[in-house]
Amino acid sequence: MKKMQVALIAAGAVAMAGGLLLSGCKSEKDFRDERAEYAVLHSQKAKYRDQLEGKKMGLLECMRYALEHNLDVEVNKVEEAVAREMRTAEMLGMLPELTVTDTFTARNNLPASSSENIYGDAGGTYSYSQSQDRALNYLNVDLALSVLDFGLAFFNTQQADDRALLRKQRTERAMQNLTLDVAKAYFQVAAAQKAINITEPLLEECRTQRAALSKLVQSRQITPFRGFDETKRFVNMEKRLTAYIRAYENSCVELRSLMGMYPAGKLVVDDNVLRNAPDFNLPEIELMEQIALLQRPELYEIDIQKHINIIECRKTILQMFPNVRIYGDFTHSTNSFLYHMSWWELGVRAAYNLLKLPKQIATYMAYSRQVEAEELRTFAQAIGVMAQVRIAHANMFTTKERYNIDNENYRTYASQLKTAIATKQTAGALSTLELVHMRLETAETEIERLLSLGNYYISYYRLLNALGVRDLNVKTVKELKAELAQARERAREEMAKAQAEYDEKRVARVASSPLADDMTGKTVSKPLTKFDGVDFIAIYDAAPLQ
Fold first, then answer.
1. How far is it, in rounded angstroms, from Cα 60 to Cα 70?
2. pLDDT at 156
C-alpha cells in the first residue's frame, strides 16, 4: 500500500514537471490564436477609452491629454520604472551570501566498523565500534562575503542608476516629440476645420453654377467651348475644396491617435488661434544654441553612456585583483558520539587567475577607447543640435514671411471682391459667374493664409523641440541664462585652456604660410599678384596675433 502511494506521488510530480515544461512551448498556431484574441480585445478596449465627443479642445488641453494618455509615453514610463527596479536589484546584490542547510539522515542498521593492526604478528583484529548514531541531523549556517563580488555589485548599482536616468531622458524626449506631433496635427485640424466652414457653402455654389452653365450653353448665350472652360474651372476648384475635407478627416485621425483615443470619429478644436499671427519674443540665437546644449535629452544620454563606460573600466580594473572571500559558518550536529556537537568556523580564502589578466587589460583598453568615442560623439551631437536650432530658427522666419505674403494676397483678393460686389451691375448671368469665381479664389487665398499661419505656429513648436524646452517665456529664459552663467564660471579654466590651444595652432598655421616674415606671426603687406594692373594685397594685421 505504501509503495503504491509513493508511486502515485512520484507520477504526479513527474506529470506536474512535464506540464510546466510543455506550457513554455508555443507553436505558430498558438501565437496566431493569441494574436486573434488580442485583435478583438484591443479593438474593443480602444473604444472604451475616453472619446471626448463634441468637446472643443484647445492646444494646451490636447497636449496635456496626450501626455497623460498616449500609449507610447506610458510604455516609456513603465520601462523607466523597470530600470529603477533593476537598480534596486543590483543594490541588493551587495549583500553577503547567507546559506542555511538542514540535513537529516537515518540508517536501518548501525554504522559500525572494525580495524586491524597493521602488524599482523603483533595483534589480532580490533573489536567493532560505532562513531555515529543511526539518525543524524546537521544544521549548518554559512555567511560568506566576496570582496570582488561586492565591488562588482557596487559598480553595477551605479550603472543601473545611470540606466534609470537614461530611460528618464528617453521618456522626456519622447514627450517633447509627442508635443511637437500634437502641435502639428492640431493646427492641421484647426486649419482644415476653418477651411471646411469656408468651403461648404462655396461647394454648393459650384454645383449651382455648373447647372447654370449647362442652361447657358443650351440657350446658346455662351459657346460650348466657353461653357467647357468655365465648367472645368469650377470642377478644378471643387476638387481643391473637397481636398480640405479629406485633410480634416486625416488630421483628426492622427490627432486622436496621438492623444491615445480611438482613431475613428471627429474632433473639434479651438480654431480661434488662427485669427492673427502672434509675436514670439525669442532670445538671441547664440543663447538659444546654449539652451539647446543644456536641455536636449540626447546629449544627456551620451553623457550617461560615457559614465557607464567609465564604470565599466573600473570594474575591469577591479577584476585584475585577486578574489578574496571571507566566510564564517556555524554547524550543529545531533551525533552523540562527537566531543563537540556545535562549532564555529572562520576563514579567508584568496584566489588569483593569472591567465585572465591579459584579457582584462585588453578589455580595459577597449572601454577606454569607447569613452573617447563617447566624448567625440557628444561633441558631434552638440554640433548637430546647434545646426538644428539654426535651421528651426531660419524656418520660423521663412514661414513668417510666407504667411505675410499669403496674408497680403488674401487682403488684396478680399478688397477686390468687395469692390466687385459694390460695383456689380445686373447685366446677366455672365457677371454672376465671374463674381462666383472671384469668391472661390478669394476663399482659396484665405485658406492658404490659414495654412501658412498654422505652419508658423508649428515652426515655433519645432524650435521649442530643437531647444528641448516646453516654453520660452521670460522666467524660463532667465533661469536657463543664470544656470549657463554659473556653468561658464565653473568651466573658465577649461575654456582658457582651449582658447590657448586654438591660438597656438593659429599662430603656427600663419607662421608656416608664405606671408609670414618671422616665427612670431608678424606678416608683411605686399602685393601677391597683378591682374589687369590691379594689385591684390594680402589683408593681414601687421601686429602679432592675439
1. 15
2. 92
Query: Which of 147, 140, 139, 160 has the alpha carbon at shortest distance from 96?
Result: 147
Query: In 3-state terms, the chain is what percent helix, strand and coil (to 5)?
Result: 65, 10, 20
CA distance 209 to 212: 5
- Find the farthest-apart pair of alpha carbons in the chain and give their distance in angstroms, rounded: 153
State residue 300's pLDDT score.
Answer: 92
Three-state DSSP at 535 gives strand
HEC letters along 430-464: HHHHHHHHHHHHHHHHHHHHHHHHHHHHHHHHHHH
Task: Provide φ and ψ at 52, rounded to 5°.
Answer: 55, 45
Q: What is the CATH number of domain 46-105+133-483?
A: 1.20.1600.10
Buried b / exposed e along 414-423 (16+ C-beta atoms within 10 A)? eeebeeeeee
Which pTM value belongs to this model? 0.76
What are the residue ranges spanned by the domains of the chain? 46-105+133-483, 491-537
> Using one digit for the tens of pLDDT, what is the confidence trace for 243-282?
777 778 888 888 888 888 888 777 888 888 888 888 888 8
Q: How many CB atoms lie within 10 A of CB 429?
A: 14
Pair 237, 447: CB distance under 8 Å: no
The amino acid sitting at 535 is D
